[in-house]
């Protein structure tokens, strides 16, 4: 290349991890050295390109590197200045050389501040560059092997190796002995006093029996009470950060707050490589499929599983309305939408159940307009159907499944708190184990577990999960059997010939909450069809289908 002033220089720097305090000393030093070299060569400084938090060994996209190459192709830059040649790439030289030779063939000179110049037409320069790229690749590969080995050893000793601690926890160093007696320093997770209290508050609000919060309400409460985020308490970068729904949702879904070990699953990029955005968490399991308890829990597992069940419902159920059937999760319109209570406090006769489908949203085959039914008429019909069933329970074998399921539900509802907690934990773990098994099969269908070793790992994991599912199912059955008292049918029924819901009956003397609990024992679904004509009061039994607990719909 002729005189130096014809050079149009672009500097490039890269740092594998952006520093938490935003100092970025490494790239700042690279920038300063590159600019000084450009001035020394009399070049025109076009600009600085840098990629933070990205490894040149990973193959992940590097936006500023790609922009630099594009500017070279466009002729805006003909001199690239780096601190080390390894800043360009730590990939295998066979993968990196095509990029470098393409630049050299386009007349671009590459300058390493510490290693010299590499120009087109100088075979020794090219050989030197190949040697440096190979050395950088080897160093990075060796370092990666050592890091993976150290992490594996720390993990075997119970250490935490996933970088920053999850919200609610702090790292505590401890020295443990390896199998050969060597002392190994590991990091352990301990509840962070202040953050753990915030996590407990989140779970308590989600599980509040009287006024449970949803994600958006929880976010509003935390921000209104000026509860600091982690970013607001560490460093200046996020000092003014606020709580956001995604952050709270991620904390609530993290199984590590319940003491479980967990693997983070990231959202994949279009090329299949993992991004930095968390998709979900996968609970770590032992050889028998049992979740591994890795550190002290912030909340009890039963609380964590209950919140997962609530987060899985969209939208969050409203608090039960002051009517017999609404809010039980059983009352639905023929279109599939839940029915809500619309009460007339002055004239109870005009209180109705109403289809909650959004106005104007009608799919093919669904009813037009609204769908309502008298509360008094439907409540009377459902109650009489239940009493008719239990009155003939001893003589009708077709009701055995209904009575058995009602007995099971009655036992669960009346169990002591310890048994309820145990059942909740088992039930939640069973749901999570089934989800993990589905995910395992999905991964296999997507091409994972290929080859002999992969197939063996798949079979081992599938067998462990299936075994755990069978064991949990058996344990739940045993709990239900132990907590199945006799239904107080005689207490519920009226004397022969008397109205079971008439004046003086058990039903008449019982408050609404107990009536609702009674209905929930026997009924799985009450489906209401739209009246055949506007203003036409069709008999209730022609519009209602009732599904008993434990059996199919009766139409």
From TrEMBL:
SMART domains: Resolvase. GO terms for molecular function: DNA binding; DNA strand exchange activity. Gene3D superfamilies: Putative Large Serine Recombinase, Chain B, Domain 2 (3.90.1750.20), Resolvase, N-terminal catalytic domain (3.40.50.1390). SUPFAM superfamilies: Resolvase-like (SSF53041). Residues 166-317 form the Recombinase domain. PROSITE patterns: RECOMBINASE_DNA_BIND, RECOMBINASES_3. Residues 1-36 are annotated as: Disordered. InterPro entries: DNA_bind_recomb_sf, DNA_bind_recombinase_dom, Resolv_N, Resolvase-like_N_sf, SSR_resolvase. Residues 8-158 form the Resolvase/invertase-type recombinase catalytic domain. This is Site-specific DNA recombinase.
């Amino acid at each position: 290349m002729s005189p130096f002033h014809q050079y149009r220089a672009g500097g490039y720097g890269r740092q594998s991890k952006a520093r938490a305090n935003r100092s970025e000393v490494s790239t700042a030093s690279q920038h300063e050295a590159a600019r000084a070299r450009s001035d020394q060569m009399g070049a025109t400084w076009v600009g600085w390109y840098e990629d933070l938090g990205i490894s040149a060994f990973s193959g992940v996209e590097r936006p500023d590197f790609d922009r630099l190459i594009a500017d070279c192709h466009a002729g805006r830059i003909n001199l690239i200045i780096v601190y080390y040649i390894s800043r360009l790439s730590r990939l295998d030289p066979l993968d990196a050389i095509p990029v470098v030779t393409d630049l050299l063939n386009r007349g671009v000179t590459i300058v390493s501040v510490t290693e010299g110049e590499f120009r087109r037409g100088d075979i020794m320069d090219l050989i030197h560059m190949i040697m440096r790229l190979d050395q950088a690749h080897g160093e990075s590969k060796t370092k990666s092997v050592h890091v993976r080995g150290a992490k594996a050893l720390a993990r075997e000793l119970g250490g935490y190796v996933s970088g920053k601690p999850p919200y609610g926890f702090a790292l505590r160093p401890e020295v443990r002995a390896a199998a050969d007696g060597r002392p190994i320093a590991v990091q352990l997770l301990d509840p962070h006093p202040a953050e753990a209290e915030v996590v407990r508050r989140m779970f308590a609000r989600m599980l509040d029996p009287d006024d449970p919060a949803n994600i958006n309400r929880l976010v509003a409460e935390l921000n209104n009470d000026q509860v600091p985020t982690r970013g607001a308490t560490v460093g200046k970068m996020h000092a003014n950060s606020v709580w956001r729904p995604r952050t709270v949702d991620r904390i609530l879904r993290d199984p590590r707050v319940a003491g479980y070990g967990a693997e983070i699953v990231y959202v994949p990029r279009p090329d299949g490589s993992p991004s930095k955005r968390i998709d979900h968490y996968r609970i770590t399991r032992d050889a028998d499929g049992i979740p591994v308890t890795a550190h002290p829990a912030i909340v009890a597992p039963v609380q964590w599983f209950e919140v997962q069940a609530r987060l899985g419902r969209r939208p969050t159920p409203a608090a039960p309305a002051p009517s017999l059937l609404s809010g039980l999760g059983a009352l639905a319109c023929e279109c599939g939408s839940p029915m809500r209570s619309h009460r007339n406090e002055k004239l109870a006769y005009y209180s109705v159940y109403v289809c909650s489908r959004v106005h104007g949203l009608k799919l093919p085959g669904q009813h037009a307009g609204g769908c309502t039914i008298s509360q008094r008429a439907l409540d009377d019909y459902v109650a009489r159907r239940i009493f008719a069933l239990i009155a003939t329970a001893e003589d009708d074998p077709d009701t055995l499944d209904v009575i058995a399921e009602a007995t099971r539900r009655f036992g669960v509802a009346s169990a002591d708190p310890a048994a309820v907690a145990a059942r909740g934990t088992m039930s939640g773990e069973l749901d999570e184990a089934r989800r993990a098994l589905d995910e395992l099969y999905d991964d296999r269908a997507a091409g994972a577990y290929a080859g002999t070793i992969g197939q063996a790992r798949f079979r081992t994991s599938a067998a462990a999960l299936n075994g755990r599912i069978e064991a949990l199912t058996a344990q739940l059955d045993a709990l239900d059997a132990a907590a199945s008292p006799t239904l107080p049918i005689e207490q519920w029924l009226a004397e022969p010939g008397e109205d079971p819901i008439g004046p003086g009956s058990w039903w008449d003397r019982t408050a609404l909450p107990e009536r609702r609990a009674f209905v929930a024992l026997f009924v799985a679904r009450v489906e209401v069809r739209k009246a055949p004509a506007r203003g036409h009061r069709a008999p209730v039994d022609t519009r209602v289908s009732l599904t008993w607990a434990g059996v199919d719909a009766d139409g």
